[in-house]
From TrEMBL:
Pfam families: DLH
Signal peptide limits: none
Span of domain Dienelactone hydrolase: 20-226
Record's protein name: Carboxymethylenebutenolidase
GO molecular function: hydrolase activity
Top-level taxonomic group: Bacteria
Length: 229
């Protein structure tokens, strides 16, 4: 089981086991029960996991999704990226990790692209149903789809065809951007009929979402282990 640690002025959830790591960037749930379970699972696979807390102690464990969505719309890209960069530094400098990747879900998937483009130390980028619409909302200062071109690490992106937050045409654009890179392999998972956020267990009452995650997660685990080994 992991613990809460202080990294500068922010708290993060840490499940520590060894000298390779993954930075976890949660979805709208914040560091809720499921994100902590994923961190613990990664630790069980020999990967130190550190999870960013986007909502400063608030999560679906104690707060409504509606309230968290309101907080998301107030999120500042530069502040969030600075916090995530500090967590990367912590993994490398304080925990002594030799390789570190980044995985994100929904809003975290978008930040995984932005962070991976800015920090060449990142060993991989994993993005589950990233929220990267071409019609950017006001709080999206940066175009994560365009910036993904600057990622030099291997990328795995998982996309559901029924994603109402990111149209299929935007996903096609994202694939074109990633596959045009001169460095860094691109792995794509595509799930017909699955919804945005299909990883979230609250959506697993719909069989197509549960099936998508059941297939996607073991492949993502294998990818992470191969790229931080």
């Amino acid at each position: 089981m992991g613990v809460t640690v202080a990294v500068g002025e922010q708290d993060a959830y840490l499940a520590r086991v060894g000298r390779v790591g993954m930075l976890l960037l949660p979805m709208i749930t914040g560091i809720g029960e499921q994100v902590r379970a994923w961190a613990d699972e990664l630790a069980g696979e020999g990967i130190t996991a550190l999870a960013w807390d986007p909502f400063k102690g608030l999560s679906t464990d104690n707060t409504s999704r509606q309230e968290l969505s309101g907080l998301l719309r107030q999120m500042d890209d530069d502040t969030a990226l600075a916090e995530q960069s500090a967590l990367l530094d912590y993994l490398f400098d304080e925990l002594g990790c030799s390789k570190v990747g980044v995985i994100g879900w929904c809003l975290g998937g978008r930040f995984a692209f932005l962070l991976g483009a800015r920090d060449q130390r990142v060993a991989n980028v994993v993005a589950f149903h990233p929220t990267v619409p071409s019609d950017r909302p006001p709080h999206h200062k940066y175009d994560a789809m365009a910036e993904a071109a600057g990622i030099t690490a291997p990328v795995l992106v998982s996309y559901p065809s029924a994603d109402t937050a990111v149209p299929n045409s935007d996903f096609e654009t994202l694939q074109t951007v990633l596959q045009a890179r001169t460095a860094g392999a691109t792995f794509t998972q595509y799930f017909p009929g699955a919804d945005h956020g299909f990883s979230d267990k609250s959506r697993h009452d719909k069989e197509v979402n549960a099936d998508a995650f059941r297939l996607a997660w073991p492949q993502a685990l294998a990818f992470m282990k191969a790229t931080v080994a």
